[in-house]
Design a protein that fits this description.
The chain has 2 domains: 182 residues, Rossmann fold; 124 residues, 3-Layer(aba) Sandwich (Rossmann fold), CATH 3.40.50. Helix 3 crosses helix 4 and helix 5 runs parallel beside helix 9. By secondary structure, it is an alpha/beta fold. Helices cover 29% and strands 25% of the residues. The strands form 4 sheets. Strands 7-10-6-1-4-5-11 form a 7-stranded parallel beta sheet, with helices on both faces. The chain has a 5-stranded parallel beta sheet with strand order 13-12-14-15-16. It has a two-stranded antiparallel sheet with strand order 2-3. It binds flavin-adenine dinucleotide. Flavin-adenine dinucleotide (FAD) binds next to helix 6, helix 7, strand 15 and helix 9.
């Protein structure tokens, strides 16, 4: 018996959210007296896979088929199901991201498993197996009880953060009986997000909304982000209006982030926006409307015009950094 966890990597380097998923799986394994088996797909080195041991993986099953370097929902599903069947996986953990949202329901269907999507806490196993998740864009919680023998969970990224421990995982090759139809969808082009700090991993984020008035003013956001060493994000209408690329959009229909500091400039704080950022440790809101709902979720609020506040804040950060 084991807890299976699907891990994701970018060009052979595991993402922080996958280390977090391994650690989550390790807590379930510890509570149920089982072990953690990670499933790694595509081109990734043995050394890199062994590092998952420091996050609680006992073993990594490697499906070393280079076709898996491009995402295929069918092929990933077959790999995870094969791993779970071979390893006696009773709990299967994926991330609540684009990959996990596509793969986990298929895995659950193939295995006749109950599923909880978007977990935000360790499962409560005191009386059965209950998973806590956000509903209504974070306005309420639901506690979902899974009664099937095999259980599938997707974990909301950045729920816990990651602490590196000790240890090294063993690596075994897993052979999966793929069929041609598993690779029926071909990725023809990949355009990578550029930027010094990837948004999903950033500890500091400066984000802009419609209050910035147009893409020509984004230098104000970028200057503050540069001064802080932060990533940039935006509200959905900003991305929909093509002021900023879609991968910067956070919220219910965008990314979920949990940085140490989230600075929201000219963003109203609609519930759908908050759904992606309300796990941030400290939220600073800059808005000229004292009634803006974001102030209710803020740790610090600056009532003012972004065109005045942002340049002054940037100068203050630069001055502070120069003197420390
Ligand atoms: C199903 C659904 C899903 C959605 N998903 C998302 C999502 O994932 N992410 C998301 O962000 N939104 C999402 N939305 C949209 C959401 O409801 C809001 O419409 C959106 O977040 C508003 O964006 P905004 O705050 O940038 O713009 P606005 O609502 O236009 O707010 C602009 C804010 O800037 C302030 N402002 C204006 N000028 C200045 C100035 N000079 N200085 C300071 N402050 C100023 C205003 O007071 C206002 O508070 C979704 C909506 C739906 C229905």
């Amino acid at each position: 018996m084991s807890v299976i966890v699907l891990v994701e990597h970018a060009q052979g380097v595991f993402k922080k959210k996958s280390q977090e998923a391994v650690q989550y799986a390790a807590r379930i394994a510890a509570a149920t007296g089982t072990t953690v088996t990670a499933v790694a797909l595509g081109t990734v080195s043995n050394e890199e896979m062994q590092t998952l041991g420091a996050y609680g993986a006992n073993k990594v099953l490697h499906v070393a088929d280079a076709r898996l370097d491009a995402f295929s929902s069918r092929a990933y599903t077959r790999a995870v199901v094969t791993a779970a069947q071979q390893d006696g996986g009773k709990v299967i953990v994926c991330l609540h991201d684009t990959t996990g949202k596509a793969v986990a329901p298929r895995v659950a269907a193939r295995m006749g498993a109950g599923m909880a999507a978007g977990a935000i806490a360790n499962p409560d196993m005191s009386n059965g197996f209950t998973v806590k998740k956000n509903v209504f864009s974070g306005k309420a919680f639901a506690h979902v009880s899974i009664n099937s023998e095999v259980k599938v969970i997707t974990l909301t990224p950045n729920t816990f953060g990651v602490t590196k421990g000790e240890g090294s995982a063993t690596v075994e090759i897993l052979s999966v009986p793929f069929e041609d139809k598993d690779f029926g969808v071909k990725v023809v082009e990949v355009s990578k997000a550029t930027g010094a700090v990837p948004l999903s991993e950033a500890e500091l984020v400066v984000s802009g909304g419609r209050g910035l008035k147009g893409p020509e003013n984004w230098g104000l956001i970028e200057n503050l982000a540069d001064a802080l060493g932060a990533a940039t994000a935006c509200s959905r209408p900003v991305a929909d209006s093509h002021w900023r690329p879609h991968h910067e959009h956070v919220g219910q229909t965008g990314g979920t982030i949990r940085p140490n500091l989230y600075i929201a400039a000219g963003i109203s704080g609609a519930i759908q926006h908050l759904a992606g950022v309300n796990g941030s440790k400290t939220i600073v809101v800059i808005n000229k409307d004292p009634e803006a709902p974001f102030f209710k979720a803020a740790d610090y609020g600056v009532l003012g015009d972004v065109f005045e506040v942002l340049p002054r804040l940037t100068e203050a950060v630069k001055k502070f950094k120069a003197s420390h």
